[in-house]
Amino acid sequence: MTRSFSWWAALGRTLLCLVFLQSLLGKMGGFGAVAAQMQQRGLPIPAVVLAVSMALMAVGSVLVISGWRQRLGAALLLVFLVPATLVFHTALEDPQERIQLFKNLAIMGGLLLVIDREAPSDRPVRR
After folding, report:
1. CA–CA dist 84, 104 (Å, integer)
2. Residue 120, SS3?
3. What is this structure's pTM?
4. What's the pLDDT score for residue 127?
5. 94 in a domain, yes or no?
6. Given this model, what pLDDT does residue 97 score?
7. Distance between alpha carbon 124 and the CA centroid of its chain, in Å?
8. What is the pLDDT of residue 122?
9. Would you say residue 80 lies in a domain?
10. φ and ψ at 29, to 5 degrees?
11. Quick one: how many helices (H) and strands (E) in the chain?
């Protein structure tokens, strides 16, 4: 049994990844400034960490949006998002940082739903 295409699911996956694509474009345009900010936070080899982060966002977003290997894509995005959230958005006394933290938690929830989505062949047969 093959899963039928759902425009709603495709739209949902695309909307979920827009934030990563927008962030990726910003990092591409300001690579040096972002790497400097990462260095200020004490991250080792910030240019390499940034390049890996950008690759995770790019590959993860493409996989999730396309629907092909979307679970892997969602996992790659989580590998980026969880540490980024812990490093950059834990200053809860700052209302803007609190908003960013909860936005990221909501996105993590969406990615976990993508990961949890079962293929029809994975579902037990109920009689």
Report:
1. 9
2. helix
3. 0.88
4. 53
5. yes
6. 94
7. 30
8. 46
9. yes
10. -75, -25
11. 5, 0
Q: Which residues contact 100 (CB under 8 A, 6 or more apart)?
A: 85, 88, 89
Q: Hey, what are 54's tokens?
A: 């950008």
Q: Are 111 and 77 in contact (CB under 8 A)?
A: yes
Angle 70-88/7-29 helices, nearest 10 degrees?
Answer: 40
Would you state the structure tokens that stand for residue 97, as one six-digit string? 């940082």
Residue 123 lies in a domain: no
Where the chain has pLDDT below 50, the residues are 1, 120-122
- Given this model, what pLDDT does residue 126 score? 58
Phi, psi of 6 (to 5 degrees): -120, 120
Q: Whole domain around residue 69: which residue ranges?
A: 8-118
Residue 12 falls within a domain, yes or no? Answer: yes
Query: In total, how many domains does the chain have?
Result: 1
Q: Which two tokens stand for residue 73?
A: 């894509």
Structure tokens at 5: 């295409």
- Tokens 């300001």 belong to residue: 30
For the stretch 10-30, pLDDT in tens is 999 999 999 999 999 999 999
SS3 call for 37: helix
